[in-house]
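Pipeline run #58 for the internal structure catalog. This entry was flagged by the ingest filter as a single-chain record with no existing model, so it goes straight to prediction. Upstream metadata was stripped on purpose; only the residue string is passed forward. Reviewer on rotation: M.T. Logging verbosity set to normal.
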Amino acid sequence: MSALHEMSHGEGFLEIMLSRNAPGLYLMDEPESALSAGRQLALLAHMRRLAGQGAQFIVATHAPILLGLPGAQILQFDDDGVLSCNYEDTDVYRITASFIHHRDLLLHHLFADEEQ
């Protein structure tokens, strides 16, 4: 393992996670805050490898990449309580997909007050 104090926060976090190779219970609170989209994909691949060996993950996240782990049970917390839902039914997926596929329209509505 490289010297963690010489790495950025995201690089250090990913280095620590990638050094974990044993099944266990992993608790993570918004790990995406330290990671670029590419690094999130690296973490996702590592999580899948570990899950295949019996590891379990509890991850609080707003990242559509991390929510996309195949086979994951997604729990959404809202005013109705805690509900199990499909990936495509999460708010973060719908908002991200809307931004990607309809960016100009979304930005037009978002900035409508500035155009008046």
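catalog note: The radius of gyration is 17 Å.
catalog note: The beta strands are 25-29, 56-60, 74-78, 81-85.
status: ready for reviewer M.T.
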